[in-house]
Design the sequence.
């Protein structure tokens, strides 16, 4: 399913000017959470949907980015904007190095390996007290700032997170439209044929994880400065499962689908908050209906 360009531009414009209308902080915070989840979903939809490496430990990339950004800003007084970028770069480099041994695996073995890597990262964070402060966690993380101006108001945080997500989505869309994107899809569809054609599987998988790790690390860095406190339980396996659900909901490998799925998955539970006793039941029924009648996701697999 392809959405017309004018519809995408109109939706982007509406969400961009949303804080100018009399909306509550609760609504803005809900969308901020959706944009952060959207960045993680963009990362996972590239890895799982485009190149076919299903990851169940993607929250580890969030944690790496969050801790790197927090420590850079606290211990080395790096400006928050640069610290968030540093968190993305560290997540891309370290995450790719950790996941590279699983490139030779196939099928569900890849998922098991990534799940194990996610648990390893969590245990390292918990026990490396000299750096991560162990179970105590890191507190007093500076707030988000841009060019020396602190982003404290909900409106400024909303615009910042929304702009970052849009930039990452545009970059990923450009990537998927290039020869790299075609190579990624070729490896996903038939890695043996791709190898016979001369594609280096490990190289292209590494490139996919580098870009995906950067997007996830940036999301984790922004979340760390937004929460002002993180520990080893902040980014757990549930975050990985949630991101995978978003990707499946929106459509594997679909950039717009990742964002639509994030908004739907964050907004749907809030919409049913008025029926708190039945919210999870309604939420589950909606997902089951989607799997039954639209297994390729809301916008289809690309």
Sequence:
């Amino acid at each position: 399913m392809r959405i017309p360009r004018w519809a995408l531009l109109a939706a982007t414009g509406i969400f961009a000017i949303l804080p100018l209308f009399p909306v509550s902080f609760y609504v803005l915070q809900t969308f901020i959470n959706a944009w952060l989840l959207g960045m993680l979903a963009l990362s996972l939809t590239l890895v799982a949907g485009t190149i076919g490496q299903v990851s169940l430990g993607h929250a580890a990339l969030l944690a790496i980015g969050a801790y790197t950004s927090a420590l850079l800003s606290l211990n080395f007084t790096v400006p928050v904007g640069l610290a968030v970028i540093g968190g993305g770069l560290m997540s891309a480099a370290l995450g790719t190095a950790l996941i590279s041994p699983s490139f030779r695996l196939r099928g569900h073995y890849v998922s098991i390996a990534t799940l194990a890597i996610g648990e390893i990262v969590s245990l390292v964070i918990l026990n490396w007290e000299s750096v991560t402060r162990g179970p105590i966690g890191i507190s007093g993380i500076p707030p988000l700032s841009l060019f020396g101006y602190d982003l404290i108001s909900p409106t400024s945080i909303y615009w910042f997170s929304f702009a970052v997500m849009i930039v990452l989505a545009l970059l990923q869309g450009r990537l998927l439209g290039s020869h790299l994107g075609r190579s990624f899809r070729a490896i996903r569809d038939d890695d043996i044929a791709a190898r016979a054609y001369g594609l280096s599987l490990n190289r292209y998988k590494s490139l996919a994880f580098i870009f995906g790790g950067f997007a996830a690390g940036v999301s984790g860095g922004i979340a760390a400065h937004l929460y002002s406190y993180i520990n080893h339980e902040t980014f757990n396996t549930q975050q990985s499962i949630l991101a995978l659900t978003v990707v499946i909901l929106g459509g594997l490998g679909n950039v717009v689908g990742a964002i639509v799925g994030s908004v739907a998955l964050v907004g749907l539970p809030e919409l049913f908050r008025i029926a708190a006793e039945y919210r999870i039941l309604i939420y589950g029924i909606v997902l089951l209906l989607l799997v039954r009648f639209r297994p390729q996701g809301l916008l289809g697999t690309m």
The chain has a mean pLDDT of 88. The radius of gyration is 19 Å. Strands lie at 138-139, 145-146, 149-150, 229-230. The CA atoms of residues 28 and 158 lie 7 Å apart.
